[in-house]
Write a structure and sequence with these properties.
heterodimer, A: 98 residues, mainly alpha, two-stranded antiparallel sheet, 4 helices, 5% strand, elongated, B: 364 residues, alpha/beta, 7-stranded mixed beta sheet, 5-stranded parallel beta sheet, 9 helices, 19 strands, 29% helix, 27% strand
Amino acid sequence: MAGREKTADGSIVICRCEDITLSEIRDLIAQGYHTIDEIKRVSRAGMGPCQGRTCRQLIARELAAALGVPIEQVEMPTFRPPSRPVLLSTIARGEADE
Amino acid sequence: MREVDIAVVGAGPAGLAATLACGESGAATLLVDYMDAPGGQLIKQTHKFFGSERQFAGTRGIQIPAIFMDRLSKMPNVALMWGANASGYYADSGVLTLEDGSKFVKVKAKRVIIATGAAEKPLAFENNDLPGVYGAGAVQTLMNVHGVKPGDRVLMVGSGNIGLIVSYQLIQAGVEVVALVEAAGCIGGYLVHAAKLRRAGVPILTSHTVVRALGEETVRGAVVAQVDQSWQVIPGSEREVACDVICLAVGLTPLVDMMWQAGCEMKYVPALGGHVPVRDENMRASNPAVYVAGDSGGVEEASSAMISGEIAGISAATSLGFEVKEADARLSRLKADLTAIRSGPTGEKICAGIKCATVCGGEW
């Protein structure tokens, strides 16, 4: 995404891992990205080390407000392993011998 | 692949209590935690617990893990794994994947008890990424685990028990708490904790929020403002507060990734902090191999986490045919203890939330 804007929304960080601001999220919603998964795919919000623990609920709230729906109607993304950061080499080596 | 009867994920108060109950039944039980030592949030809870003696009232949180470990370490059927990151649960095979250091380990468990706790809720305000903006959990870890002062002048955001207790602990550590802001019209935590802060001279500003962090490289201050009943900032009410730390204590949300992975039926319950698994009265989720315990089933506190952990442990063990002495009587007593803990105005909201998250009729 583009560098930080100097506007108020441009200095509110929503996804800390991927450095994505509120203005970027609002732009994406205005462009028609209306689910957390769509916003994730196009911006990487939620794909960093914390796996969306910080940004997911903030993005859900933005979507709810923009779409005029209660927050429970905002579709959650698919949760897949690993839910915490793992070194690829750990998986590549395969299962440890007992 | 390792095989166990019951795997417990998370060694906080809920996971420890669940493991003890499983261990007593004779079930081959594995307790894993990504930290290097047991206790979860207990390791920073230097305050004495309230409640009943059965949940260690009068004991400091930091002393509780050792009480559990003393008993667990004597159980030959209980295995403990620290520094092991449980990163996935595969519902089709009942396999849990772990990273133990650089080793990849698969564990096939007939039952899993998810006791992964909760994560802090974020707050969106201007410059919220400036160094000096902390979560209350981080502040508590710095102070109470590592003996490090997070700064000299703290603005606390949020008046739940965590915000109130951490504020008082900051004062005890010689840190000035310049103010505590709370967006709601009244405090969220216990009056007894808030009263201590007021006696220490800390202004508690209800119907206030933080609008902006000030500073270039680090926090040098904050702009706080009054909010109306729909949480909107009242123009003209903004004012600057000098501080070098903005500490966020705006609530917790259950860590439920593994229950989503397990295909459990989930429900959004604001009173419990967010999405939680629908469960029966014995903490069993809609996936019958999965049980939930503690904050990952709904944010409360450590005492109720220990009770729901014990309920989940007893239920998981008996579901596999292991004998738990007087299981029914113990379960009734534990459920009565939960009801007692959930009395009072805060408890009412929790009870309504639990009811919402419990399957109709109380059992699957």
